[in-house]
Amino acid sequence: EPEAEPVPVLVPDGAETVQLRCRAQGVPGVWLHWEYQGHALSPDQPRFQTHQWREGPWTSSLLTVANVTLDRSRLRSRFRPLNWDRSQSRRRHQYRNWDGDRDRDEDPEQNRTLSTFVCVAQNPLGTVRRRFQLRLAGTGT
Predict the structure, then answer these.
(1) Start and end of every Ig-like domain (predicted)?
(2) Please, what CATH class does the domain formed by 7-79+108-136 belong to?
(3) DSSP for residue 111
(4) Domains in the chain: boundaries
(5) What is the pLDDT along the chain (141 residues), one digit of tens a residue?
(6) 128 CB-contact burial (10 Å; exposed 0-12 / middle 13-18 / buried 19+)
(7) R_g over Cα of the chain
């Protein structure tokens, strides 16, 4: 599913860690690894821990993401609360052909996205990617 929608993973407010599970099978067998911001996760990154195992024809991988509050604070600084007063925060100098506030208002779903991780399954015959989108859980979800 090369163009499949990302799998939403709801992160409750106050959560410090999140676990993502990916599983694949293939002949010949597959290897799994994770990507973040377009790069493979390296084992020396203390924030991310991976564990991989085989169950019959299936290969599984568990990614533990620590310090989710880092992504949450980045998100909060990027997007203001819904009830912010635009008249107080209007920029003094603004480009005529670009409104920096427009990006925040066009996609309210993006306003809840903490980060996106990609599980990559590979074997000698090809590669398949599946995106997981960490999303801030709303009060109604």
Answers:
(1) 2-38
(2) mainly beta
(3) G
(4) 7-79+108-136
(5) 556 789 999 988 888 899 999 999 999 999 999 999 889 998 788 899 999 999 999 999 999 999 887 776 666 666 555 555 555 554 554 545 544 444 444 444 555 678 899 999 999 999 999 999 998 886 444
(6) middle
(7) 19
CB count within 10 Å of CB 28 equals 7
Q: Return the amino acid letter for 14.
A: G
Torsion angle in degrees (nearest 10) through CA of 37, 68, 75, 35 = 10
Q: Which two tokens stand for residue 64?
A: 């533990």
Structure tokens at 94: 């603004």
Asked whether the beta carbons of 31 and 141 are under 8 A apart, the reply is no
Give the residue from 38, 30, 35, 57 showing the smallest Cα distance to 48.
35
- d(Cα 129, Cα 106) in Å, to the nearest integer? 27
Look up the pTM and report it.
Answer: 0.70
Helix (H/G/I), strand (E/B), else coil: 1 = coil
CA distance 55 to 88: 57
